[in-house]
Amino acid sequence: MGAISTFSWLVAGLGVTASGASAQEFDMLNYPGPLFLAFYPTVCVIAWLLIAGLHRFAYWRRPWGAADGGTPRRLEPDEVALIAGDALRMTQVATLALLDAGAIHIARPPKGAAYVIAEDRQPLGRHGDTWIWLTRQSQRRVRWTKFRDRLVAEASVMADALQREGWIWAPHAMRGARLAARAIVLLVLGLGAAKVLIGLSRGRPVMWLLVEMAAFAIAYRALAAQLIGLGCGGPTAAAGAALDVHRRRGEGLSGGGAAPDNLLWSVALAGTGVLAGTIWAEYESALVASPIASGASIGSGSGDSGGDTSGGGSGSSSCSASSGGSSGCSGCSSN
């Protein structure tokens, strides 16, 4: 509620100031048509910059997202994959972790899809239930796509937990910033609508002003959809800082001679493209076969995901905490 109150007072103050200035100095509604058409885009640009600035302020002001206060802890590779990439990347990291633990092996016939086969060693950790499920399948094996879909079901549970801990912003979770952005948009559209009514009452053409208003509304929706916590989900500032630490630690640890544990972190941060030339190179193509359903994008993409095309794939959900919460998220809902 504190954030909502702060933004509400800020927007109210800006609205009063703008109204007073327009009434006393500019009297914008009485601008001649051509002059108003030239002036209105400037108002729109200022509104966009103000919305982006308010979002940036809220993003860095609340480093742990909607959580009251996060508790720093060591993230696991599959969690990093979900934050830095998407659900598909998480399934890839989880599969490689199970492979490294000796719990499964992957068989790929000369023709056809790869199969995941359960071994006798039960893994520890959150993916143990998936291994048990695999052992109950016919011949203890399933196609990779079916195994992957089973792991995808765990992604939403993981994402909910990461949101509660303050590692991920949920879409529309910045209630204060969202309220402020909508108020700014209403002020701008209200100004245009008032001028349209004046123009109609005077028998003047208003088509171009309506076009400018529509363009502003469309551009606002596009902008809001790229902002973490406003229109789409993505990493919090605390998560972004943690990812940067992992990236610095992982520099120079990937490549042909990399240990499996280092490869897990590399895949989590950059996707399966890093597997080329490594001990797991043979699994690279198998792990990116077939896209998953849309809406699987959870976190923020970074790096190459080895051709991932997961409906909101990791390469396309490029939300970056270092950009102040601005993202190229796919699967983001409109604001």
Q: What's the helix and strand layout?
A:
Layout: H1 2-26, H2 33-61, H3 77-84, H4 87-100, E1 104-107, E2 115-118, H5 128-135, E3 141-143, H6 144-165, E4 168-169, H7 175-201, H8 207-225, E5 234-235, H9 237-250, H10 260-270, E6 318-319, E7 327-328
Antiparallel strand pairs: 1-2, 2-3, 4-5, 6-7
Helix pairs in contact: 1-7, 2-7, 2-8, 3-4, 3-10, 4-6, 4-10, 7-8, 9-10
Tell me what you see in this structure:
- The structure is a single chain.
- The chain is mainly α.
- The chain has helices spanning 2-26, 33-61, 77-84, 87-100, 128-135, 144-165, 175-201, 207-225, 237-250, 260-270, and strands spanning 104-107, 115-118, 141-143, 168-169, 234-235, 318-319, 327-328.
- The strands form three sheets. Strands 1-2-3 form a three-stranded antiparallel sheet.
- It is elongated and about 80 Å long.
- Mean pLDDT is 78; it is low at 1-6, 19-25, 294-323 and 330-334.
